[in-house]
Write a structure and sequence with these properties.
two-stranded parallel sheet; about 325 residues; 2 domains; globular; mainly alpha
Length: about 325
Amino acid sequence: MEKEVYQGETLKSTSSKLDFEIEMKLAAQKLDALRSQGISEPLIASDMRDFGLQRAKKFGWPNTYVFTKALGEMCIGQYKDSLPTVIIRPTMITSTYKEPFPGWIEGLRTVDSVVVGHGKGKITCFLADPSCIMDMIPGDMLINAMIVAMVAHANQCPSRTSNNNNNNITNYNNIYHVGSSLRNPVNFSSLHQFSYSYFTKNPLINMDGKPIIISKGIVFSNMAIFRIYMLLCYLIPLQILQLLSKAFPSYFRDLYVTSMRKFNLVTRLVQLYKPYVLFKGIFDDTNSERLRGKAREMSSSNDEVDLFNFDPKCIDWKDYLINIHIPGVKKFVIKK
């Protein structure tokens, strides 16, 4: 639900209460302690990432990305005082739907690392529940939601708790989930199929100038089975290949290095995306739907409504992913 995150709240039972100010102090102390040891900056960065992940998991968050989002909301709640605030919670942000033009994106975002890895032939297996909803929203729709929210709440009083008056936008928390899982869901199985369909017809080109032929790959919905598969099909053969590369480097070293990179890529991505590709939740967007209604009231014409559209129901996921998003990633990110 589109509810506030209060100071002290956690996602799992723990004897400690979550306090963003304490977390900031602990992070600063950890950083000072590492720097006092005179170790290199890359090692400091690595240790700080591990420390952040440890703190996130302690309170029930799967990674530091979502953990610090929660801390940020707690900070806003603590210090906003009488300042009117709006909190926008986007789901996985993808390339633009229309503006400034369809498919524009900077850098790999969310599931695109998996999509590109698949297209390059580097990912032939992955962990995901095929029925898991991939809650995505195009970047320009997110920006539209932010603009409309600012206009709707300009010069209003601070957030108030909701009541039975559903037509008054000031009478509920100014928190908006901007996503698609409730009104226009698309699952991982469909995303996988669309990715395979696109790269089969529009293959990427390897360093030798030849098209990369991909397989559909295997998707495991269970972590235990995935680990067994990786052990038997990759890790044990890699260990044998490592021995052969040492004994016969001119024959096996390149193969070992390439295979090890693929193994590490899949392992890293699985750990990164596991909280999302096995996630069963749906994000309610009742407040966002009210905001869309408010936008229609404020607009002077249908063209204006369309210009600031952020309704996920208008998205045809097959058309968007195959004809807009994946080509956009190919053009603006991998540039091949």
